[in-house]
């Protein structure tokens, strides 16, 4: 059996294979990860609602018996997994980071969570989020703040912040997340891991309403491309309860082969013609990442889309207020519950109440025009590139940055505007690690691909990983 430290550092694909081959037991894997959680989670607070270790070890032993008797249940057989705390988990507390749901234990799983269980994963608990997933800083009044894997004095990102930090510190082999305003991309960038926002319908998100357009999607996070593809292959796939679900067989995502980078055409949007402010050093690191592509034969060309970026932002604001405000309004209507909601949640509802159906339609028309603009750019480029965040991880005690490089931020999420063009395009977007700044804080690069081309993003990421070795960079707590 490999040492416990080796079990937590193994790739998820290798670890799952070792369990299937019975080279290591699921119980040993569970114990190794529980030890890692005990070692690091008290510092960073990434995993919450952790189940009792004795119960988890018993479930791992049952997985070993099941494997011996019946073979693997699925590709994640015996792997410990913590689910983002916005997603319903049967029998495990799901708080959404809100005092309103502090003691809520769902009776059923979210659709993608059910797929994790069916694939053989053992759910150990949840990963921390901002309250209701609002904002890119995972802090809430139920569990407190999640701290960065590379510097615990800094924020871990969000809303999939607990997922990214737990993944980076090897407390879990894989991590699921969701993304509306960069919630897979920002924490991935800030913790030197991969985050993939799939196209709408790639991972069915069964909700109470399935016909109106949505901006949020569920997707995978991982430390390497093979693991990212493995989790996407489990999450994705058709489901008749979701009318826009994609019917393509997701099995092909599981082992993404690297593509030849020579000839790859990358359109570098950068700061969108000066519209987006950046903390010094962000653009430099992203351009260094692009140089790694160029060194291997890719053509990187600056491009300024013929579209007003402020119009994209304003349309997103309206659609977000419509979607988010509507979902939270049932709580807002009760004054006692409203008093327990964070100001940003109250703001979303109250702004949403001012909207008309015509406002929403006009915003959707703008979104459509932006999609058509992006589609036209893909006639010249294979992917479009933007930084994955506008600032490096900030102090964990802050709520959100009020200024970037001297420019004031007018909302709680304006500082993450750089992710909005990807969200509004509806296209798949990946965040790739591009290295650390002189303070040792990570940053990431977004690549946007044509609609439904997640496989292309995985192939590009696999080649970039081979060229740069970003997966070998460790947080300081794991070095030595």
TrEMBL record:
UniProt domain Amidase: residue ranges: 28-458
A Pfam family hit: Amidase
UniProt cross-references to SUPFAM superfamilies, sorted A to Z: Amidase signature (AS) enzymes
Organism domain of life: Bacteria
Gene3D superfamilies in alphabetical order: Amidase signature (AS) domain
Alphabetical keyword list: Hydrolase
PROSITE patterns given in the database record: AMIDASES
Gene Ontology MF annotations: hydrolase activity
Function: Hydrolyzes indole-3-acetamide (IAM) into indole-3-acetic acid (IAA).
Protein name: Indoleacetamide hydrolase
Organism the protein comes from: Methylobacterium currus
């Amino acid at each position: 059996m490999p040492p416990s430290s080796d079990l937590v550092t193994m790739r998820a694909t290798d670890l799952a294979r070792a369990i299937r081959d019975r080279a290591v037991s699921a119980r040993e894997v569970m114990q190794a990860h529980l030890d890692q959680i005990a070692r690091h989670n008290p510092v960073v607070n990434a995993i919450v609602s952790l189940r009792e270790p004795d119960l988890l070890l018993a479930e791992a032993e049952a997985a070993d018996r099941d494997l011996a008797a019946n073979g693997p249940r699925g590709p994640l057989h015996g792997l410990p997994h913590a689910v983002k705390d916005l997603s319903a988990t049967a029998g495990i507390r799901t708080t959404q980071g809100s005092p309103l749901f502090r003691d809520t234990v769902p009776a059923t799983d979210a659709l993608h969570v059910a797929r994790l269980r069916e694939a053989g994963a053992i759910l150990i608990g949840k990963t921390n989020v901002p309250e209701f997933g609002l904002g890119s800083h995972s802090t809430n009044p139920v569990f407190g703040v999640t701290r960065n894997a590379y510097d615990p004095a800094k924020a871990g990102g969000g809303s999939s912040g607990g997922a990214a930090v737990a993944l980076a510190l090897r407390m879990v082999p894989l991590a699921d997340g969701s993304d509306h305003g960069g919630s897979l991309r920002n924490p991935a960038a800030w913790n030197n891991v991969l985050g993939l926002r799939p196209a709408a319908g790639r991972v069915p998100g069964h909700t109470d309403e399935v016909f109106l357009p949505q901006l949020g999607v569920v997707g995978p996070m991982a430390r390497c491309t093979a693991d990212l593809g493995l989790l996407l292959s489990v999450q994705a796939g058709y489901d008749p309860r979701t009318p826009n679900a994609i019917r393509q067989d997701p099995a092909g995502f599981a082992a993404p082969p690297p593509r030849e980078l020579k000839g790859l055409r990358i359109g570098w949007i950068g700061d969108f013609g000066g519209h987006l402010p950046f903390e010094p050093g962000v653009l430099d690191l992203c351009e260094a990442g692009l140089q790694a592509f160029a060194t291997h034969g890719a053509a990187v060309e600056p491009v300024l889309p013929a579209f007003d970026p402020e119009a994209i932002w304003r349309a997103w604001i309206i659609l977000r207020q419509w979607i988010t405000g509507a979902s939270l309004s049932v709580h807002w209507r009760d004054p006692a519950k409203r008093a327990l909601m964070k100001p940003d949640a109250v703001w979303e509802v109250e702004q949403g109440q001012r909207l008309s159906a015509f406002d929403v339609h006009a915003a959707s028309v703008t979104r459509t025009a932006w999609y058509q603009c992006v589609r036209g750019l893909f006639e010249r480029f294979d992917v479009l590139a933007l930084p994955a965040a506008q600032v490096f991880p900030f102090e964990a005690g802050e709520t959100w940055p009020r200024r970037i490089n001297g420019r004031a931020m007018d909302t709680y999420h304006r500082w993450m505007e750089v992710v909005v063009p990807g969200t509004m395009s509806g296209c798949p977007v990946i965040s790739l690690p591009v290295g650390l700044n002189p303070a040792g804080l990570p940053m990431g690069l977004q690549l946007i691909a044509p609609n439904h081309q997640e496989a292309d993003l995985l192939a590009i990421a696999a080649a970039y990983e081979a060229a740069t070795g970003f997966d070998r960079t460790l947080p300081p707590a794991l070095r030595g």
